[in-house]
Amino acid sequence: MEHFTVIDLGSNAVRMTITRINDDGSYQTVKQIKRYIRLSEGMDANQELQPEAIDRTLAALADFKDIYETYKNVHVKAVATAATRKATNRNEFLACIQEKLGIRLDVISGLMEAKYDYLAVANTLPVKNYVMLDTGGGSTEIVLCQNGVVSHRASLPIGSVGISHQFHLEDEVSPTDIFDAMSYVNDALGGVWWLKEGLNLPIIAVGGSNRTLAKIYKRSAQIENLNDIHGYRMSRSMVNHIFSQIIGKNQEQRKEVPGLSKVRADIIVGGLIPIILILRFLDSDRVVFSASALRDGVLKEHLNATVEQVQIKE
């Protein structure tokens, strides 16, 4: 028996999942935990991770270590994504974590992040042709899947934290700022040359901002099991309706929106812009939400379950 532990260090949050893998190959999730650390906060033009953000991250990882060390036969796989990827002081940051905590962080590329996202989603939803969108804090991954096979994937250096900060969307939103932000994201999508091959396909939505969208709607519709969003569907018109409500509120008002975590109130506008625009860009009429994420893809790779079940065309 093994306790496989995946740590995902993102731009906005750090997450850990501990999975018990039994000798017969079966497995169960035994622990999931998340801490909001805003690693990318204050990076700005110099692209340096700031001391306060580093301290928050170290504290969260120390807590995670205390937790996973209570289990036997632990195997830790820790990955870092967008914020660490682009940080000019990332080597010092990684060395600090290694020295103080003994945790080795692997900085994965945006394309590898997209691959893990796909592996997490593959065979868990009843669709074979789709465009997957993972809106993170510091990057957005897009995957085009045709007949169950990945034909294209991309990673864009735009995310909920960066968009919200760059275009002043944290609090009250002005028409000029929302226009500028949407133009910026639309240009980024337009640079993905193959994206139009996904015309009219459903969008598989992954990531914290997109999961929040599903929770807001479920709460407004008084649907039970708020956190059970895997396979949940929303129409494009309903997505647009919720977005229009969100941008009409300031940060304090957003904190009172049912289904919206208070710690996301300042980044939710920037976090929803990619899904709003990709629906329009591809003239897609629906979103299907996935509760699976990068950590699940890392687990699948570890289990070697992907060898026969999924295909990625390089």
Automatic annotation (TrEMBL):
<dbReference type="Pfam" id="PF02541">
    <property type="entry name" value="Ppx-GppA"/>
</dbReference>
<dbReference type="InterPro" id="IPR003695">
    <property type="entry name" value="Ppx_GppA_N"/>
</dbReference>
<comment type="similarity">
    <text>Belongs to the GppA/Ppx family.</text>
</comment>
<dbReference type="InterPro" id="IPR050273">
    <property type="entry name" value="GppA/Ppx_hydrolase"/>
</dbReference>
<protein>
    <submittedName>
        <fullName>Exopolyphosphatase</fullName>
    </submittedName>
</protein>
<feature type="domain" description="Ppx/GppA phosphatase N-terminal">
    <location>
        <begin position="23"/>
        <end position="303"/>
    </location>
</feature>
<dbReference type="InterPro" id="IPR043129">
    <property type="entry name" value="ATPase_NBD"/>
</dbReference>
